Amino acid sequence: METNQFVRADNGPSGKEEMKRDLLAEDNNQTLTYSFDDINTGVHYILLNTDSLSTVSNPRLPEKTVPSWAPLHWVERDLVKASNNPNIKRIVVLAHKPLVLDNPGPHDIVHNTAPYTLGDSLLKLFSETPKFSGYFSAHSHQWLYTDKLGPRQNVTQVIAGNAGSKLISKWAPEDGTYFGFTVVNLYDDNTIGVVSYARPAPTPYNSLAPQPAAKPSMEIIFPVVGHANTEMKSTVH
């Protein structure tokens, strides 16, 4: 897919009944949550709005709604459809907020407070989806690769939030903090690799002084997708 081609976001959660089922408030969910297929590579992409507002009441918030929501039922239906499509080899999810984070602050991850544990529910869905390949997010200003997530320990998450904003203080890699970008490689054997291009973070972080070019790190290969021909059925009610 060429970078100058854009996909029309017209298949996200919409309509009163669908919005009600996912407890979504009337906002821009349809245009920020959607999915599409890249027929050239056999990849199904889900773009997930993790900043959705919910109709669930929260008296601690002035807007009386809960942020950091995600349309769980819509995601499940989309996963089932893509999983049962023989032309789709793998499924990749792109979102703003991560599913898992050590000591997250308020609204730093997908809402995961009982009884609405959306983060855990999404992890379970991804873990049980045979063609699921990876979850990419940012929001937390750091770079972090985490695998073996979910009930089957087969979900991989990449947080690529080190593009240039002030980095979080608790991120302390051995070789020092760094800014950069991430390249995702899709291979014919259904594996996915990520390469972090990095340059040292300056002090102050927003320094206008000339900076060195970002250099690639060693590529990390995701676990291989398995059971690609397994039929998936709806389980969320």
Query: At the fourth CATH level, what is the homologous superfamily?
Result: GpdQ, beta-strand dimerisation domain
Mean pLDDT: 88
- Helical residues, percent: 10-25%
Largest sheet: 6 strands, mixed
Oligomer: single chain
- The CATH architecture category equals 2-Layer Sandwich
Helix count from the secondary structure assignment: 4
Largest sheet, order of strands side by side? 1-2-5-8-10-9
Tell me the overall shape: globular
What is the CATH C level class, in words? Alpha Beta
Count of individual domains: 1
**What is the CA–CA distance across the termini?**
35 Å
According to CATH, the fold-level topology is Transcription Regulator spoIIAA
Radius of gyration: 18 Å
Unreliable segments (pLDDT under 50, ≥5 consecutive)?
227-237
Secondary structural class: alpha+beta
* Percent strand: 25-35%
InterPro entries: Metallo-depent_PP-like
Protein name: Calcineurin-like phosphoesterase domain-containing protein
Organism: Solemya pervernicosa gill symbiont
Notes on the protein architecture:
It is a single chain. The chain is of the alpha+beta class and 237 residues long. The protein has one domain (16-221): Transcription Regulator spoIIAA (2-Layer Sandwich). It is built from four helices and 14 strands. The strands form four sheets. A six-stranded mixed sheet has the order 1-2-5-8-10-9. Strands 11, 12, 13 and 14 form a four-stranded antiparallel sheet that branches. The protein has a two-stranded antiparallel sheet with strand order 3-4. Strand 11 and strand 12 (192-200) form a beta hairpin. Helix 3 runs parallel beside helix 4. The longest helix is centred in the first third of the chain and has 12 residues, at 72-83. The chain starts with 15 loop residues before the first helix and ends in a 16-residue tail after the last strand. Mean pLDDT is 88; it is low at 227-237.
